[in-house]
Every structure is written in structure tokens, then in C-alpha cells.
Fold:
Amino acid sequence: MSTSAFSLPGPPNVASTLRTRRGGAIPGLRYRQVAPADPAKAAEVDRRLEAWARQLDLFPEAWKGDFSGFQFGRAVVLQHPEAVDVERLTVAGELLLAENVVDSCYCEEDEGRGGARRGLGGRLIMAQSALDPYHGIPELEEEWRHGVRADGPLRSYHFALADYAAFATPSQTDRFVHDIARLHLGYLAEAAWAETRHVPRVWEYLVMRQFNNFRPCLSIVDAVDGYELPEAVYARPEIQRITALACNATTIVNDLYSFTKELASDPTHLNLPQVIAANERCGLKAAYLKAVEIHNRIMEAFEEESSLLSATSPLVERYARSLSDWVAGNHEWHATNSHRYHLPNYW
Structure:
């Protein structure tokens, strides 16, 4: 049966009546506990990030509250506990900030910052060029450079990548550029489904989220931690699998923690519980708990397969640990960021 005719649960039984409770970990969710972020280090990263963003004129003064509420500094300190220094943490924050600026300004219609589904492909190909430069005759290259400098989201990508490339190897930098292209492909799929009001099957939704996910953030874990997993090792199918499992698990974490926030702003927004509810004709509570179960099975596979691969090489063991650190730290950021997230009262 086609899911194109399915409808999402939507109001009035969601945003207007869903009771929530403040932060904390989702009951029954599989995760690894981590120590709290060093507040002084997080504050220093935030200070540097905001100075960088203001210098590049990336967003208006009205965004100041959004910047502090997102807690970029605390996020990257939690995600990269083995980072070489504050400079590399700051660059990780620059990349994270740039990805959010592009998403907000180009993709998110409900945030009031100019995002739109219509014409998204044209904007994203320009965004990709801010990372993967145009090469041609000199006068046209100069026009391209002017176009990049004239747009805040493009400036954010361009200068964040330049700072990353200053310490990452060419292979690590190219890896990141390709993973951003994967992210953009996911943005386009989500926008196309929203424009046509298509509700995907559960497996289709999770395929989309394997592209529209945190993979670019996890692409940089070895560079931020001061080593390189060589390209020939990184490309191996079993390494690609644990990387994808880590990215998929943490992306479902985002779906679960942002569930009430998204429904409040757009009751038809696609997330895993909504898609499960539409496909299985069940209530949102049952669908949410099913999404927790799917996450836990993916997380278990990541842990088990990472452990087996870690025994094959000290370098692979270090990479698997860096992935695990990012996943655990990102969960902690979601679970403790009560400014952004409130859990549904399902327990």
C-alpha cells in the first residue's frame, strides 16, 4: 500500500494538547553517560565563535538569543572530549554553526529567515561551491568569489572550511566536503516530500535521514582529536558501516528530543515517531516508544561492531572511540539542553 495518501497525526491531538516535561534523558534510551562539559572551556569556545560570526556578519543582532540558547560551545566540548586544543574545538564549532546557518536560511520555512523548499536545489549547489570551489576562467572565478562573499550562509561555509583545512589533511578536508554533499542531498529529499505532502515508509524515512544527518560533524572527529584515519582504511565497508550506524543513532536521538519542539512549530513536520504513527496507524505515544526501540537496536549494533573492529587495529580502535565520544556527547547535549528541548510526557 502506498504511503503517499497517509496523513500525519497533526493537530488538534499534538501541539495543542501534548503535555511535556523538562529535560533529562529519555527513559529506556540506550546511551553512554559522559562527564559534564567544562564550563570555562565551553564559554571560551562560545566567545570565540560569536566573535567569528560577528566578524563575518553571519546573522543579525536579533539572533543573539538563538546563538546563546543553542550552546555551540558546550556541544563541541561534549562531542570532542579528546580534542587537541581549544582552537580545534572552535573550528568544530564554526563548522557546526555554518551548517545551522545554511539549514536555517536556506531550508527551514518555519523559522522566518528566508528558507523555502521551492528552489532549494539552486541555493544548495551554490552552498556546495563555497566548499568545493568553482574553477574556470579568471574573471568568472572572481564573480564566483564575489557571490560567495556577498551571502552570509556561503561566507560561513567558506571561512569555516578554510579554518578546518589549516590543520586537517587534504584527505580529511575532502571527506568533509563529500559528506556535506550527502547532507545537501538529504535536505533536498526532505524538501521534496514536504512539497508533495508525501509521507514515506519507515525505511524510506530512515534512508533519507542517513543523508540528512550529523555525518559531517562525525567526519571531523579524527582531525579534531589530532590524528588521521587514512583514506584507504576509512573507505573500507566495515568502517563505513560503523560510521553510518553512529550517525544514524545520533540522528534518531535528535528526532526524539526535538519531537515536541517540531510539532509545536509545524504539526506535519516529518520525524521518526510521526512516520511510524502514519505507517502503523497507531498513536504518537506508541510510535515514539517504537522509535526509541529502533534507536536502541541501531546503537547496540554500533557498539558491538565497533568493539569487534577495534580489536583489529589501534588506529581503528581510536577512531571507533572518537565516534562513540561524539555520539555520547551529543546525547548529553540534547538531554541537558532544556532551552531547546522538552520531552513528551509519555512515561
User: Anything to note?
Assistant: Strands lie at 20-21, 343-344.
